Structures are given as C-alpha cells and as structure tokens.
Amino acid sequence: MIQDSSFKKEFEFEKTLSEYKRVKIICYLLAIGMLVSILNNYLDFLDLQRFFKYKTSGYAIIIWVFFFLNYELIFLFLLRRYIKNKLSINDHVKLAHTLIEIIFPGILMFMLTVIEERAVYLDAPYFLTYFLLIAISSLQLNFRISFFLGIMAALQYSALTYYVYNYVIPVNDIKAHMPIASYYVRSVMMLFTGAASGMIALEINNRVQNSFKQLVEKQKIINLFGQQVSREIVDELIQRKDELDVKRVNATIMFLDIRNFSTYAETKDPQEIIEFQNNIFDPLIEIISKHKGLVNQFMGDGFMASFGIPLQTLSHEQNAFNAGLEIINKIKVLAEVGVIPITRVGIGIHSGEVITGNIGNDIRKQYSIAGTTVITAARLEQLNKEYRTQFLVTREFLNKINTNGQAVESLGDVSIKGFEKPVEVMCVKV
C-alpha cells in the first residue's frame, strides 16, 4: 500500500513509537504485579497462602515477574535508543520479542504446576495473561504478529492441559476437574482472540496509514504552494493528484504591484515596512482565495496570482476580474480608515494557455507556471506605470467576461516587449 519511500520511513517510525507505548504499558502492569506479589507474599492481604500448597510458589511468582519485567525494560531501553536516533525497528524484531513475551505465562503456569503438583493453575487467573498480551499486540499494527501470538498461546495452553491431565492429576481426581475439552476450548478462544486482535490491528493500520499519508500529502502541497492554499484546495488536490502533473491548461494570471513602494520603504524602518506589507497583503490574499485564486509568488512589493490552476474552474477569467475590482476597492477602504497610507497598485490580467507542473526533486519542489500568458500579464502590470492606470487587461481577456457595467476604455494596440504583434490593451476604470 505504501509506495512513497519517505512516507514509508515516517510511518515505520510511527509504528516504532506505538511499539514503545505497548511495551511501556506492559512494564507498568508488571511493576504493579511485582508490588502486589511482594506484598501478598509477606502480608497475604489477598489471602492466597491457603491457595498455595508450598511457600515456594509465592517466591516463584515474584521471580517470574522480576525476570519478565527486566526483559521488557531491556527492550524498552533498546526502543528508546532507536527513537532517539530517529530509527525504526523492523517487524522481525518485534515478532521475536512478542514470541518471547507469550512464552512467559506458559513458563509460570508450568512452574507452579510442577511445584504444587496440582492442576488448579489451569484455572488460575495467570492464564488471562495470554489474552492481555494478545489484545495489546494490536498496537503493533501487524495482523500476522497478533494472529501468530494467538496460535502460540493456544498451542502452549493445549500442551499444558495435555501434560496436566496425563501426568499431574491422579486418575481418581479427574472427575473433580472440568472436562479436558473445556480447556481446549480456551485454547481455541485464544486463537480467535489472536485473529480478532489481528483484524483490529489491520484496520487500525489502514486507518492510521491513510490518515498519516493524507497529512504527508497535505504537507507536500503546502510546501509547494505556501500557506496561501486553502484547506478546500488541499483536500481536493489530494483526491486529484494528476492536477499537479506537467501539462498545458487554460488559466488566468494576475500580476499586482504596489506603486512607489521603494520610495516609501526608504523613509521607514523595517518594522513599519513589514507592518505595511502585512496590512495590505493579508486582505488581498483573502480576496484572491475568496475568488478561487492562488497567490503563487511574492515579489517584494507585489505578487503573481493564478486562477483556474492547479484546480480547473470554468469561470476563472470572471473570478480574476472580480478579484481585481475588489482588491482596488479594498485598498481604498483601508486607506480611508487609516490602516494604510494612500496607496495605488498596478494590476495586469491575461488569460490563455499556460504550462504548469510540479518541478524539482524530493529535496525541493516548486509548482511552476510558464508561458506567453504569464509574460503578457506581467507586461500589462508594468504598463500601468506608463499609462498612470491601475487595472489593465487585454481585449482577448475582456471578451471572455462580463464587466457588469464596469467602465472599460481601450488604449489601442500596444507593442509589448517580447511579442511581434501588438496587443489591444483595455483599461478598467476604477
């Protein structure tokens, strides 16, 4: 399922963190078990001394918990070293570790059975340790490990049952115990528990993997487009990854420049300059996003925005035109209320075919837009200085939109640097 190598590495590390939490839980439980065992061995507050035939059994339990706990602590230390160095532990190591874990309950019950020479330990709560270990194995997010643990637990308990009924219980006492089939049923239940935990682990693995992969994809898109990408666009791009492939598409490009910014910056300190840029750019970015556009690049005192890419929209020309009008009106309002000084901008808009795509490598990628449409829009924005205007578009662009009564004046055919044929430039009266 995982194809991206960087994603696989990150996800495997997350699984290592999950394994660390699982082992930590076991350590806490064993530490509590150690405390209870010691207190009970000397104080008998659980009244279990009557349960044991020999005092040795109490010490055997303490020793068992001690070795089990230390084994887990050693592995916990190993996991901590791996996590500190940002390394992942592979599934083979986790499988070997959990197989050793599942042997511990069998060792305890066999040990007590031999010491006490009784079969009661088949019914003692210690066999529930199997179910506990199998259940929390789901945190390893591996179906095979959980299912294999269920198999191993079932085999151990079945073998212990066979041993007890054939070599421990006296013949005349067999009727005092449950039928042997009842204990084999428990073994089957352990097997089913392993399968169920495995299915849960598989489901959690798939859900976590999908969620984690989505987060990685979102981060990639944000890295490509910056923080100007709305959540809606990010979510849609995840579903339509082909939109980021290199291709030729129709789109609308807007260039915007703050007039006389250099003169303004010369007389202001850096804090004032940054405050001015934030006060003017923040609302402009919101306007661009509102009209389904995207700010692709900041250029000190201006920016380039695109409409209709990376996600195709049928009305990208109209969206860009409406955004341009709203931007100029917004700047007027900001100046009137004193948020910014009186400011003029230059806007150039053109639509047509562009070449877009995700260009770069795994270290650095950028969503690039190129073509004559981009150059034309940039040149139009620069022409605002020459004609002392604020909003210029081409006749070709104007023919694709509804001006909604907004006054537009032709400036005639204008020669644009880099193009053989002149372009009819239209001035939007604002």
Rg result:
36 Å
- How large is the count of helical segments? 12
Q: How is the biggest beta sheet arranged? A: 8 strands, mixed
Cα shape = elongated
Q: Percent of residues in beta strands?
A: 5-15%
In short:
By secondary structure, this protein is of the alpha+beta class.
Task: Describe, in plain words, how this protein is organized in 3D.
There is one protein chain. The chain has helices spanning 5-43, 56-84, 91-116, 128-136, 143-168, 180-225, 231-239, 261-266, 270-290, 316-336, 372-387, 395-398; strands at residues 247-258, 293-298, 302-307, 345-360, 365-370, 391-394, 408-414, 423-428. The chain is α+β, with helices and mostly antiparallel strands and 430 residues long. It folds into 2 domains: 5-222; 242-428, 2-Layer Sandwich (Alpha-Beta Plaits). Strands 1, 2, 3, 4, 5, 6, 7 and 8 form an 8-stranded mixed beta sheet that branches. A hairpin with a 4-residue loop joins β4 (345-360) and β5 (365-370). The longest helix is centred in the middle third of the chain and has 46 residues, at 180-225. The relative contact order is 0.07.
Features:
2 domains, Alpha-Beta Plaits, 8 strands, 430 residues, 12 helices, alpha+beta
Write the layout of secondary structure elements.
Elements: H1 5-43, H2 56-84, H3 91-116, H4 128-136, H5 143-168, H6 180-225, H7 231-239, E1 247-258, H8 261-266, H9 270-290, E2 293-298, E3 302-307, H10 316-336, E4 345-360, E5 365-370, H11 372-387, E6 391-394, H12 395-398, E7 408-414, E8 423-428
Parallel strand pairs: 4-6
Antiparallel strand pairs: 1-3, 1-4, 2-3, 4-5, 6-8, 7-8
Helix pairs in contact: 1-2, 2-3, 3-4, 3-5, 4-5, 4-6, 5-6, 6-7, 9-10
